[in-house]
Amino acid sequence: MEKDLARIALFAALIAILGVIPKIALGFGVPITAQSLGVMLAGAVLGARRGGLAVLLFVFAVALGLPLLAGGRGGLGVFASPTVGFVIGFPVAAFVTGLVVERMRMVPPAISAGLGAVIGGILVMYAFGTVGMAIVLKKSLVEAALLNTAFIPGDLLKAGLTGMLVAAVAKLRPEMLPWYRASGQRI
């Protein structure tokens, strides 16, 4: 139990730290940041439940006003900005990423984590982000989805990086991956 709480807090902190990496501002109010990598890693390393809880803790801290989002943003105002869908979708994205890796236990960790990051960390996150952008920017879903295409190359890179990092963890410290350890799989 204590290990789970520590890992959940650690990944919430990792996502916050990734917010320190300078963002790349886009003209429509949603920046390119490294924080989505933290969301992908939380789900891929911790699994669905723990990963989702880690990201939910991060979002809760942001809602309380801690300036943890890229650019030092935090507080309830974030939930009225074009990034609202992404922020709300973070925990769901981590959960789905974790769910994919848990269901693909017999697949090499690089592949299951990379695929989980694509499904959860890109498709699910974009679904939430697109709806949020459409509402706040008063655009159609198609227009908002087209704006999101600017993020695809970077997010595919983050998904690949997630797969590589999880494969390295599986090889060096498999006990860090509860879903992997439970599968009995060896590299």
Automatic annotation (TrEMBL):
<comment type="similarity">
    <text>Belongs to the BioY family.</text>
</comment>
<dbReference type="InterPro" id="IPR003784">
    <property type="entry name" value="BioY"/>
</dbReference>
<protein>
    <recommendedName>
        <fullName>Biotin transporter</fullName>
    </recommendedName>
</protein>
<feature type="transmembrane region" description="Helical">
    <location>
        <begin position="76"/>
        <end position="101"/>
    </location>
</feature>
<dbReference type="Pfam" id="PF02632">
    <property type="entry name" value="BioY"/>
</dbReference>
<keyword id="KW-1133">Transmembrane helix</keyword>
<dbReference type="GO" id="GO:0015225">
    <property type="term" value="F:biotin transmembrane transporter activity"/>
</dbReference>
<dbReference type="GO" id="GO:0005886">
    <property type="term" value="C:plasma membrane"/>
</dbReference>
<keyword id="KW-0813">Transport</keyword>
<keyword id="KW-0812">Transmembrane</keyword>
<keyword id="KW-0472">Membrane</keyword>
<feature type="transmembrane region" description="Helical">
    <location>
        <begin position="51"/>
        <end position="69"/>
    </location>
</feature>
<keyword id="KW-1003">Cell membrane</keyword>
<feature type="transmembrane region" description="Helical">
    <location>
        <begin position="113"/>
        <end position="137"/>
    </location>
</feature>
